Fold this protein.
Amino acid sequence: TELDQLYVHESVENVIPQDAFVDAFDEVSIPAELVGDGREYDASDAIATYAPRPEFLDAGWVHCIRAGYDEFDTDAYDAAGVALTNSSGIHGSTVGELALTFMLSLARLGHRYRDHQNERSWWEPPYDRPFTIENERVCVVGLGTIGEAIATRCDALGMDIVGVRRSDEPVPGVSELFDPDRLRDAIENARFVVLTVPHTPETEGLLSDEEFAAMRDDAFVINVARGPVVDEESLIAAIKNDRIAGAGLDVFETEPLPDDSPLWGLDEVIISPHKGSATNRYHLDIADLVAENVRRYQSGDILKNRVA
Ligand code: NDP
Ligand code: 7N6
């Protein structure tokens, strides 16, 4: 069946103003229309959405506007024979630059200066606290679009980069690749451990007590992947007990991060509200991906980023 309608589900509002998004689809060859819950779909419908809905399993093709599609039941899509695509490939610069923002601040103390600026205080750090990320080792766990973009940027800043992935596909700038079962060897000498893996049963709780014990006590965790990849309670304990130095976190076990989370009060933790991918061009990046896949779908080609 050919597609004749693209529906943009209102859940995209989580990240993109709906109207900007629908307008961005001007270049797509089928009309785009905003929808809410409860509509009926058939095989000639495509849907672009942030969140999953049961009724999407009647459509021809569903596009998730996130890279992480862990909220979607891929088995159900396979069983229904409905194509599901994700948005990997567009977050290298956005999330990559946030990871570098965290690393540079944790080394050069942007976060501490701003804390003291809020108090109009000319605070000077202890002599041994500032360092340069140049010549420091970073371990990037997950070397896809985002991990590679981080490795490129760390390489440009003179860092020593090691990485963890399942395949042995090399990545420019990464001096050594470790299998996931050697995670501990990979992280033990790193000043920064950066998480860029998808949230799967294998990656849930990847960093927990044993990993924090293996890490250097002056190391920082950067999580721009998904909250559950880190055991948050262990992380808080590791920072409070000085087993590691701190963290830069864009993602959390519960979002928004609850008011009573101890993370809010830790000086060496930088918190951002799951906005690593934020950019004023997000609607255009997504529209490019969707337009490409509409072309492929209509000509019977394999869809880009198909995950079910
Ligand atoms: P990619 O699919 O391009 O990269 C993921 C990489 O992780 C792959 O290269 C894969 O390599 C590796 N990987 C998978 N499983 C494991 C494992 N068990 N151990 C080690 N490595 C593993 O995805 P993206 O880079 O686009 O995004 C990564 C994740 O980041 C997303 O799934 C999402 O959850 C999160 N994200 C967060 C954003 C934010 O706003 N903070 C924005 C965008 C994404 P290999 O196959 O060789 O193992
Ligand atoms: C913004 C979501 C992802 O998985 O969580 C991120 O892509 C960003 C649309």
